[in-house]
Amino acid sequence: MHPRSRVSRYSGGIFNLMARAIWSGAISFGLVNIPVKLFSAVSRKTVRFHQIDSKSGARIRQQRVNQDGEEVKYEDIVKGYEISPERYVMIAPEELESLEPQKTRTIDIEAFVDLEQIDPIYYDHPYYLAPDKGAEKAYKLLVDAMDEASKVAVARVVIRSKESLVALRPRAGILAMETMLFADEVINPDSLDELTVDGSKTSKRELDMAKQLIDSLSADFEPEQYRDEYRERVLEMIERKAAGETITIETPEEEPQKVPDLMAALEASIAASKGPSGGGSKRKTRSSNGSKSSSKKTASKS
Predict the structure, then answer these.
(1) pLDDT per residue as tens digits for the range 253-278
(2) SS3 track for the chain
(3) 177 Cβ neighbours under 8 A, 6+ residues apart
(4) Is this prediction's pTM over 0.85?
(5) In 10 A of CB 179, how many CB atoms?
(6) Contact 142/109 with Cβ under 8 angstroms?
(7) Inter-residue contact 298 to 277 (CB < 8 Å)
(8) 187 has a pLDDT exceeding 90
(9) Which of 16-30, 69-83, 110-124 has the lowest mean pLDDT?
(10) What distance in Å separates the CA atoms of residue 122 and residue 120, rounded to the nearest whole number?
């Protein structure tokens, strides 16, 4: 078996397994309840490593110890909120449990809003909602109605003892659910001095050239074109080491980055985008019959 097949199958661990619902409940709005099941919409492909003792090759085990180095049993651990240096308010598990939101197992819709009113910065984690048995018609009706109205539902839901603000939106005939950040969790850019650009001014010529560069690099978004190249390099290195190859590390010399002349950089970028291998060659155009056509970028081989 090729090393890549071996590495990918083991590290993934979930290939060929059917997706399972991680929560079930009902969408609730007005007097309507639609039973649904929740599925994660993403499968992270992060390469995960264990910590290993370089001398013995044994895995590192973590222990809970106090400042004197003595191991503490799990049942003797409480949570502490630091209110000043080395001063804590200790909270027992049962005290936190008494404050947990009521587990209603419903996604309570509070409002329907226009999609463009929600800044994408508020989105956190995506999920899919599937209709439970017998709820297919009501589910489809909600999806179609939201799609035609171009609305997104803002709701609250309790999952694993945590209340979340969520957005429900129609996507390709189904309902997608995004957990959202609360307003006080999003940092106001006005609080960051480095983001203050009030004193900077641009000329009309600079703006026109910047717009020209943007236009030359404009294309349809095709997610399949983008790959996690770092992860691929890591997996390739793991395969080579697993096959017994010795890895030679070459450290590239870092050259100091010069602040470019803005106009010169714009002109050079526009010229490069118009070349045979420039980004402009990836732009999609529409033929006279309305269909999309795309010119493929060619690369010369040395």
Answers:
(1) 777 666 567 778 878 888 887 766 55
(2) CCHHHHHHHHHHCCCCCCCCCCEEEEEEECCEEEEEEEEECCCCCCCCCCCECCCCCCECCCCCECCCCCECCHHHCCEEEEEECCEEEEECHHHHHCCCCCCCCEEEEEEEEEHHHCCHHHEEEEEEEEECCCCHHHHHHHHHHHHHHCEEEEEEEEECCEEEEEEEEEECCEEEEEEECCHHHCCCHHHCHHHCCCCCCCCHHHHHHHHHHHHHCCCCCCHHHCCCHHHHHHHHHHHHHHCCCCCCCCCCCCCCCCCCCHHHHHHHHHHHHCCCCCHHHHCEEECCCCCEEECCCCCCCC
(3) 38, 107, 126, 127, 128, 129, 166, 167, 168
(4) no
(5) 17
(6) no
(7) yes
(8) yes
(9) 16-30
(10) 5
pLDDT digits (tens, 9 = 90+) for 26-78: 999 988 999 999 999 998 888 999 999 999 999 999 889 998 999 999 888 88
pLDDT higher at 198 or 193: 193
What pLDDT score does 256 carry?
67
For each of the domains in the chain, give its residue range(s) and CATH number, in order of start: 23-43+80-189 (2.40.290.10)
Among 220, 187, 98, 107, which Cα is nearest to 153's? 107
Residue (of 257, 276, 297, 278) closest to 212 by Cα position: 278
> Which pLDDT belongs to residue 147?
95
**Residue 295 to residues 97, 188, 209, 262, 300, Cα–Cα distance (Å):** 60, 42, 24, 30, 16
